[in-house]
Amino acid sequence: MDKAKLREGIQKYSMIIVLVLVTLFFTWGTQGKILFPQNITNLISQNAYVYVLATGMLLCILTGGNIDLSVGSVVCFVGAVGGVFMEKMGMPMPIAVILMLLLGAVIGAWQAVWIAYVHVPPFITTLSGMFVFRGLSNVVLGGQTLPIKNQAFVVLFGGGANCYVPDILGGGEGMNRLAMVVGIVACVIFVVVTMKGYLNRKKKGYETGNVAAMYIKMILICAVILFVTYKLAKYKGIPTSLVWVLIVVLIYGYITSKTTVGRYFYAVGGNEKATKLSGINTERVYFLAYTNMGLLSALAGMLTIARLTSAQPTYGQNYEMDAIGSCFIGGASAYGGTGTVPGVIIGATLMGIINQGMSIMGTDQNMQKVVKGLVLLAAVIFDVVSKKRSE
Protein backbone atom coordinates (compact mmCIF):
# COMPACT_ATOMS: atom_id res chain seq x y z
CA MET A 1 0.00 0.00 0.00
CA ASP A 2 1.18 3.53 -0.81
CA LYS A 3 2.74 5.10 2.30
CA ALA A 4 1.02 8.43 1.59
CA LYS A 5 -2.40 6.75 1.48
CA LEU A 6 -1.61 4.77 4.63
CA ARG A 7 -0.61 7.96 6.43
CA GLU A 8 -3.76 9.70 5.20
CA GLY A 9 -5.92 6.81 6.38
CA ILE A 10 -4.33 6.75 9.82
CA GLN A 11 -4.78 10.51 10.14
CA LYS A 12 -8.41 10.33 9.00
CA TYR A 13 -9.34 7.61 11.48
CA SER A 14 -6.90 8.57 14.22
CA MET A 15 -9.59 9.32 16.83
CA ILE A 16 -11.35 6.01 16.14
CA ILE A 17 -8.05 4.20 16.63
CA VAL A 18 -7.45 6.12 19.87
CA LEU A 19 -11.00 5.34 21.05
CA VAL A 20 -10.45 1.63 20.48
CA LEU A 21 -7.06 1.66 22.24
CA VAL A 22 -8.42 3.61 25.23
CA THR A 23 -11.39 1.25 25.51
CA LEU A 24 -9.06 -1.77 25.44
CA PHE A 25 -6.84 -0.16 28.11
CA PHE A 26 -9.73 0.48 30.49
CA THR A 27 -11.19 -2.96 29.76
CA TRP A 28 -7.89 -4.38 30.99
CA GLY A 29 -7.56 -1.88 33.83
CA THR A 30 -11.07 -2.56 35.18
CA GLN A 31 -11.01 -6.33 34.56
CA GLY A 32 -13.77 -5.87 32.00
CA LYS A 33 -16.11 -3.97 34.34
CA ILE A 34 -16.34 -0.98 31.99
CA LEU A 35 -18.08 -3.21 29.43
CA PHE A 36 -20.74 -4.48 31.84
CA PRO A 37 -24.26 -3.78 30.46
CA GLN A 38 -25.08 -1.40 33.33
CA ASN A 39 -21.89 0.58 32.78
CA ILE A 40 -22.59 0.89 29.04
CA THR A 41 -26.05 2.23 29.90
CA ASN A 42 -24.60 4.61 32.49
CA LEU A 43 -22.05 5.87 29.96
CA ILE A 44 -24.86 6.88 27.61
CA SER A 45 -27.17 8.34 30.25
CA GLN A 46 -24.49 10.31 32.09
CA ASN A 47 -23.06 11.79 28.90
CA ALA A 48 -26.31 12.52 27.04
CA TYR A 49 -25.94 16.25 27.77
CA VAL A 50 -22.37 16.18 26.36
CA TYR A 51 -23.53 14.69 23.05
CA VAL A 52 -26.26 17.33 22.72
CA LEU A 53 -24.11 20.33 23.71
CA ALA A 54 -21.11 19.19 21.64
CA THR A 55 -23.29 18.91 18.53
CA GLY A 56 -24.41 22.52 18.96
CA MET A 57 -20.89 23.67 19.87
CA LEU A 58 -19.61 22.19 16.61
CA LEU A 59 -21.62 24.75 14.59
CA CYS A 60 -20.08 27.58 16.61
CA ILE A 61 -16.56 26.19 16.17
CA LEU A 62 -17.08 25.70 12.43
CA THR A 63 -17.58 29.45 12.00
CA GLY A 64 -13.92 30.09 12.81
CA GLY A 65 -12.95 28.32 16.01
CA ASN A 66 -15.49 30.31 18.04
CA ILE A 67 -16.94 28.85 21.23
CA ASP A 68 -19.84 29.43 23.61
CA LEU A 69 -18.79 29.66 27.26
CA SER A 70 -22.33 30.23 28.54
CA VAL A 71 -23.86 26.82 27.79
CA GLY A 72 -23.37 25.40 31.29
CA SER A 73 -25.06 28.41 32.88
CA VAL A 74 -27.88 28.34 30.29
CA VAL A 75 -28.42 24.63 31.05
CA CYS A 76 -28.75 25.51 34.74
CA PHE A 77 -31.00 28.53 34.17
CA VAL A 78 -33.40 26.81 31.78
CA GLY A 79 -33.57 23.79 34.13
CA ALA A 80 -34.30 26.10 37.07
CA VAL A 81 -37.06 27.95 35.22
CA GLY A 82 -38.56 24.68 33.97
CA GLY A 83 -38.53 23.28 37.49
CA VAL A 84 -40.39 26.33 38.77
CA PHE A 85 -42.91 26.06 35.93
CA MET A 86 -43.76 22.42 36.73
CA GLU A 87 -43.30 22.18 40.50
CA LYS A 88 -44.27 25.61 41.82
CA MET A 89 -46.67 26.89 39.19
CA GLY A 90 -48.27 23.52 38.38
CA MET A 91 -47.84 24.02 34.65
CA PRO A 92 -48.60 20.98 32.42
CA MET A 93 -45.44 19.19 31.35
CA PRO A 94 -45.84 19.65 27.55
CA ILE A 95 -46.33 23.41 27.91
CA ALA A 96 -43.36 23.66 30.28
CA VAL A 97 -41.15 21.76 27.80
CA ILE A 98 -42.14 24.04 24.92
CA LEU A 99 -41.50 27.15 27.03
CA MET A 100 -38.09 25.82 28.10
CA LEU A 101 -37.08 25.26 24.49
CA LEU A 102 -38.32 28.74 23.55
CA LEU A 103 -36.43 30.25 26.48
CA GLY A 104 -33.22 28.55 25.35
CA ALA A 105 -33.71 29.79 21.79
CA VAL A 106 -34.39 33.36 23.00
CA ILE A 107 -31.24 33.31 25.15
CA GLY A 108 -29.24 32.02 22.20
CA ALA A 109 -30.75 34.69 19.92
CA TRP A 110 -29.96 37.41 22.50
CA GLN A 111 -26.29 36.48 22.47
CA ALA A 112 -26.31 35.89 18.71
CA VAL A 113 -27.45 39.46 18.01
CA TRP A 114 -24.38 40.91 19.75
CA ILE A 115 -22.05 38.44 18.08
CA ALA A 116 -23.46 38.51 14.55
CA TYR A 117 -24.63 42.09 14.09
CA VAL A 118 -22.76 44.21 16.65
CA HIS A 119 -19.58 42.11 16.19
CA VAL A 120 -18.83 41.71 19.88
CA PRO A 121 -16.32 38.80 20.10
CA PRO A 122 -18.08 35.50 20.92
CA PHE A 123 -15.66 34.87 23.79
CA ILE A 124 -16.65 38.11 25.54
CA THR A 125 -20.38 37.81 24.80
CA THR A 126 -20.69 34.25 26.06
CA LEU A 127 -18.37 34.87 29.03
CA SER A 128 -20.81 37.58 30.05
CA GLY A 129 -23.69 35.14 29.55
CA MET A 130 -21.93 32.59 31.74
CA PHE A 131 -21.99 35.00 34.69
CA VAL A 132 -25.46 36.43 33.96
CA PHE A 133 -27.34 33.14 33.68
CA ARG A 134 -25.50 31.52 36.56
CA GLY A 135 -26.56 34.45 38.74
CA LEU A 136 -30.14 34.31 37.46
CA SER A 137 -30.26 30.59 38.26
CA ASN A 138 -29.52 31.40 41.89
CA VAL A 139 -32.17 34.12 41.86
CA VAL A 140 -34.85 31.84 40.39
CA LEU A 141 -34.12 29.00 42.83
CA GLY A 142 -33.30 31.21 45.79
CA GLY A 143 -30.07 29.26 46.23
CA GLN A 144 -32.05 26.12 47.09
CA THR A 145 -32.53 22.69 45.52
CA LEU A 146 -35.89 22.18 43.81
CA PRO A 147 -36.98 18.50 43.54
CA ILE A 148 -38.53 17.48 40.21
CA LYS A 149 -41.53 15.29 41.04
CA ASN A 150 -43.22 15.26 37.62
CA GLN A 151 -42.68 11.59 36.75
CA ALA A 152 -43.82 11.96 33.14
CA PHE A 153 -41.09 14.56 32.56
CA VAL A 154 -38.46 12.52 34.40
CA VAL A 155 -39.16 9.35 32.39
CA LEU A 156 -39.45 11.19 29.05
CA PHE A 157 -36.04 12.84 29.42
CA GLY A 158 -34.11 9.96 30.91
CA GLY A 159 -34.29 10.14 34.69
CA GLY A 160 -35.34 7.64 37.33
CA ALA A 161 -35.56 3.85 37.28
CA ASN A 162 -38.18 3.60 34.50
CA CYS A 163 -36.47 5.82 31.92
CA TYR A 164 -36.32 3.14 29.22
CA VAL A 165 -38.26 2.61 26.02
CA PRO A 166 -40.88 -0.12 26.72
CA ASP A 167 -40.10 -3.47 25.11
CA ILE A 168 -43.15 -3.78 22.89
CA LEU A 169 -41.80 -7.08 21.53
CA GLY A 170 -42.20 -8.79 24.89
CA GLY A 171 -38.63 -9.76 25.70
CA GLY A 172 -38.03 -11.78 28.82
CA GLU A 173 -35.90 -11.00 31.86
CA GLY A 174 -32.34 -10.16 30.88
CA MET A 175 -32.97 -9.68 27.14
CA ASN A 176 -34.75 -6.68 25.66
CA ARG A 177 -35.87 -7.73 22.18
CA LEU A 178 -36.67 -4.21 21.03
CA ALA A 179 -33.07 -3.08 21.62
CA MET A 180 -31.71 -5.93 19.53
CA VAL A 181 -34.19 -5.32 16.70
CA VAL A 182 -33.32 -1.61 16.69
CA GLY A 183 -29.62 -2.50 16.44
CA ILE A 184 -30.19 -4.84 13.50
CA VAL A 185 -32.42 -2.34 11.68
CA ALA A 186 -29.85 0.43 12.25
CA CYS A 187 -27.14 -1.75 10.69
CA VAL A 188 -29.30 -2.55 7.67
CA ILE A 189 -30.13 1.13 7.13
CA PHE A 190 -26.47 2.13 7.49
CA VAL A 191 -25.33 -0.49 4.93
CA VAL A 192 -28.07 0.46 2.45
CA VAL A 193 -27.32 4.20 2.72
CA THR A 194 -23.56 3.61 2.39
CA MET A 195 -23.91 1.35 -0.64
CA LYS A 196 -26.41 3.69 -2.27
CA GLY A 197 -24.03 6.62 -1.85
CA TYR A 198 -21.16 4.56 -3.28
CA LEU A 199 -23.18 3.48 -6.34
CA ASN A 200 -24.39 7.06 -6.96
CA ARG A 201 -20.82 8.39 -6.88
CA LYS A 202 -19.66 5.62 -9.18
CA LYS A 203 -22.53 6.23 -11.63
CA LYS A 204 -21.70 9.94 -11.83
CA GLY A 205 -18.00 9.27 -12.27
CA TYR A 206 -16.94 10.74 -8.91
CA GLU A 207 -14.04 9.49 -6.81
CA THR A 208 -15.27 6.48 -4.81
CA GLY A 209 -12.22 5.82 -2.67
CA ASN A 210 -10.92 2.44 -1.59
CA VAL A 211 -13.73 -0.15 -1.79
CA ALA A 212 -12.04 -2.50 0.68
CA ALA A 213 -11.76 0.33 3.21
CA MET A 214 -15.47 1.07 2.76
CA TYR A 215 -16.40 -2.57 3.50
CA ILE A 216 -14.11 -2.68 6.53
CA LYS A 217 -15.67 0.55 7.80
CA MET A 218 -19.19 -0.87 7.37
CA ILE A 219 -18.30 -4.10 9.17
CA LEU A 220 -16.66 -2.29 12.10
CA ILE A 221 -19.50 0.23 12.55
CA CYS A 222 -22.15 -2.48 12.38
CA ALA A 223 -20.18 -4.55 14.90
CA VAL A 224 -20.09 -1.59 17.30
CA ILE A 225 -23.83 -0.93 16.87
CA LEU A 226 -24.71 -4.57 17.53
CA PHE A 227 -22.34 -4.78 20.50
CA VAL A 228 -23.82 -1.67 22.15
CA THR A 229 -27.45 -2.67 21.52
CA TYR A 230 -26.70 -6.18 22.83
CA LYS A 231 -25.30 -4.70 26.04
CA LEU A 232 -28.34 -2.43 26.36
CA ALA A 233 -30.63 -5.41 25.75
CA LYS A 234 -28.89 -7.35 28.53
CA TYR A 235 -29.69 -4.58 31.03
CA LYS A 236 -33.00 -2.73 30.71
CA GLY A 237 -33.12 -1.76 27.06
CA ILE A 238 -32.87 1.62 25.33
CA PRO A 239 -32.64 4.65 27.68
CA THR A 240 -34.98 7.47 26.69
CA SER A 241 -32.02 9.86 26.90
CA LEU A 242 -30.40 7.89 24.05
CA VAL A 243 -33.48 8.53 21.91
CA TRP A 244 -33.00 12.29 22.32
CA VAL A 245 -29.30 12.00 21.52
CA LEU A 246 -30.04 10.02 18.35
CA ILE A 247 -32.64 12.57 17.24
CA VAL A 248 -30.14 15.42 17.66
CA VAL A 249 -27.28 13.52 15.99
CA LEU A 250 -29.36 12.45 12.99
CA ILE A 251 -30.87 15.91 12.42
CA TYR A 252 -27.61 17.82 12.71
CA GLY A 253 -25.62 15.16 10.89
CA TYR A 254 -28.00 15.63 7.96
CA ILE A 255 -27.92 19.44 8.19
CA THR A 256 -24.13 19.69 8.22
CA SER A 257 -23.52 17.16 5.45
CA LYS A 258 -26.52 17.39 3.13
CA THR A 259 -27.91 20.94 3.20
CA THR A 260 -26.86 24.30 1.81
CA VAL A 261 -27.15 25.93 5.24
CA GLY A 262 -24.79 23.33 6.65
CA ARG A 263 -22.18 24.11 4.00
CA TYR A 264 -22.39 27.80 4.92
CA PHE A 265 -20.96 27.05 8.37
CA TYR A 266 -17.93 25.37 6.78
CA ALA A 267 -17.56 28.18 4.26
CA VAL A 268 -17.54 30.90 6.93
CA GLY A 269 -14.93 29.03 8.92
CA GLY A 270 -12.81 28.35 5.85
CA ASN A 271 -12.69 31.94 4.61
CA GLU A 272 -15.22 34.40 5.97
CA LYS A 273 -14.30 37.30 3.67
CA ALA A 274 -14.51 35.18 0.53
CA THR A 275 -17.81 33.71 1.72
CA LYS A 276 -19.27 37.17 2.25
CA LEU A 277 -18.08 38.36 -1.15
CA SER A 278 -19.76 35.35 -2.75
CA GLY A 279 -23.13 36.66 -1.53
CA ILE A 280 -23.66 34.55 1.59
CA ASN A 281 -25.06 36.43 4.60
CA THR A 282 -22.33 35.58 7.14
CA GLU A 283 -24.10 37.49 9.92
CA ARG A 284 -27.09 35.18 9.54
CA VAL A 285 -24.79 32.15 9.77
CA TYR A 286 -23.39 33.39 13.10
CA PHE A 287 -26.92 34.16 14.29
CA LEU A 288 -28.11 30.66 13.46
CA ALA A 289 -25.10 29.03 15.15
CA TYR A 290 -25.57 30.76 18.50
CA THR A 291 -29.37 30.69 18.50
CA ASN A 292 -29.19 26.97 17.86
CA MET A 293 -26.68 26.63 20.70
CA GLY A 294 -29.22 28.16 23.07
CA LEU A 295 -31.92 25.76 21.87
CA LEU A 296 -29.73 22.69 22.42
CA SER A 297 -28.63 24.04 25.80
CA ALA A 298 -32.32 24.03 26.79
CA LEU A 299 -32.63 20.38 25.74
CA ALA A 300 -29.46 19.56 27.70
CA GLY A 301 -30.99 21.36 30.67
CA MET A 302 -34.05 19.13 30.52
CA LEU A 303 -31.91 16.00 30.27
CA THR A 304 -29.88 17.17 33.28
CA ILE A 305 -32.72 17.93 35.68
CA ALA A 306 -34.56 14.76 34.62
CA ARG A 307 -31.53 12.56 35.29
CA LEU A 308 -30.81 14.21 38.65
CA THR A 309 -34.54 14.64 39.47
CA SER A 310 -33.92 18.14 40.80
CA ALA A 311 -32.85 21.64 39.79
CA GLN A 312 -29.90 23.24 41.56
CA PRO A 313 -28.00 26.53 41.12
CA THR A 314 -24.74 24.54 40.74
CA TYR A 315 -25.82 22.36 37.82
CA GLY A 316 -24.05 22.77 34.50
CA GLN A 317 -20.63 23.69 35.88
CA ASN A 318 -17.86 22.84 33.36
CA TYR A 319 -20.44 21.60 30.83
CA GLU A 320 -19.03 24.05 28.31
CA MET A 321 -15.58 22.52 28.72
CA ASP A 322 -16.95 19.02 28.14
CA ALA A 323 -18.65 20.18 24.93
CA ILE A 324 -15.63 22.12 23.64
CA GLY A 325 -13.25 19.30 24.51
CA SER A 326 -15.44 16.73 22.73
CA CYS A 327 -15.42 18.83 19.55
CA PHE A 328 -11.66 19.31 19.41
CA ILE A 329 -10.90 15.72 20.40
CA GLY A 330 -13.39 14.59 17.74
CA GLY A 331 -11.49 16.34 14.97
CA ALA A 332 -12.98 19.85 14.83
CA SER A 333 -10.31 22.37 13.88
CA ALA A 334 -9.33 25.14 16.28
CA TYR A 335 -9.28 27.40 13.20
CA GLY A 336 -12.82 26.54 12.09
CA GLY A 337 -14.16 25.09 8.86
CA THR A 338 -13.39 21.45 9.77
CA GLY A 339 -15.34 18.95 11.85
CA THR A 340 -18.24 16.50 11.64
CA VAL A 341 -21.08 15.39 13.89
CA PRO A 342 -19.88 11.74 13.92
CA GLY A 343 -16.42 13.00 14.90
CA VAL A 344 -17.92 14.98 17.79
CA ILE A 345 -19.78 11.88 18.99
CA ILE A 346 -16.52 9.92 18.94
CA GLY A 347 -14.83 12.70 20.93
CA ALA A 348 -17.64 12.81 23.50
CA THR A 349 -17.59 9.01 23.82
CA LEU A 350 -13.82 9.03 24.32
CA MET A 351 -14.15 11.63 27.10
CA GLY A 352 -16.95 9.59 28.68
CA ILE A 353 -14.94 6.35 28.61
CA ILE A 354 -11.92 8.10 30.15
CA ASN A 355 -14.11 9.55 32.93
CA GLN A 356 -15.91 6.29 33.65
CA GLY A 357 -12.79 4.13 33.34
CA MET A 358 -10.83 6.25 35.81
CA SER A 359 -13.80 6.34 38.20
CA ILE A 360 -14.12 2.54 38.20
CA MET A 361 -10.37 2.24 38.75
CA GLY A 362 -10.64 4.63 41.71
CA THR A 363 -8.43 7.33 40.22
CA ASP A 364 -8.24 10.56 42.21
CA GLN A 365 -10.57 13.33 40.97
CA ASN A 366 -7.68 15.76 40.56
CA MET A 367 -5.75 13.29 38.41
CA GLN A 368 -8.84 12.77 36.28
CA LYS A 369 -8.81 16.50 35.48
CA VAL A 370 -5.11 16.31 34.63
CA VAL A 371 -5.70 13.45 32.19
CA LYS A 372 -8.66 15.20 30.52
CA GLY A 373 -6.62 18.38 30.12
CA LEU A 374 -3.69 16.53 28.54
CA VAL A 375 -6.01 14.65 26.16
CA LEU A 376 -7.54 17.94 25.01
CA LEU A 377 -4.12 19.54 24.55
CA ALA A 378 -2.91 16.54 22.56
CA ALA A 379 -5.95 16.73 20.27
CA VAL A 380 -5.41 20.43 19.52
CA ILE A 381 -1.65 19.94 18.99
CA PHE A 382 -2.46 17.15 16.53
CA ASP A 383 -4.81 19.51 14.66
CA VAL A 384 -2.27 22.34 14.52
CA VAL A 385 0.61 20.10 13.42
CA SER A 386 -1.53 18.39 10.77
CA LYS A 387 -2.62 21.75 9.37
CA LYS A 388 0.95 23.01 9.15
CA ARG A 389 2.08 19.84 7.35
CA SER A 390 -0.77 20.12 4.83
CA GLU A 391 0.27 23.69 4.08
From TrEMBL:
NCBIfam families: GguB. Signal peptide: none annotated. It comes from the Bacteria. PANTHER family: ABC TRANSPORTER PERMEASE PROTEIN YPHD-RELATED-RELATED, XYLOSE TRANSPORT SYSTEM PERMEASE PROTEIN XYLH. It is a multi-pass membrane protein. Keywords: Cell inner membrane, Cell membrane, Membrane, Sugar transport, Transmembrane, Transmembrane helix, Transport. The gene is gguB. The chain crosses the membrane at residues 48-81, 93-117, 178-199, 211-230, 242-266, 287-308, 328-350. It is found in: Cell membrane. This is Xylose transport system permease protein XylH. Part of the binding-protein-dependent transport system for D-xylose. Probably responsible for the translocation of the substrate across the membrane.
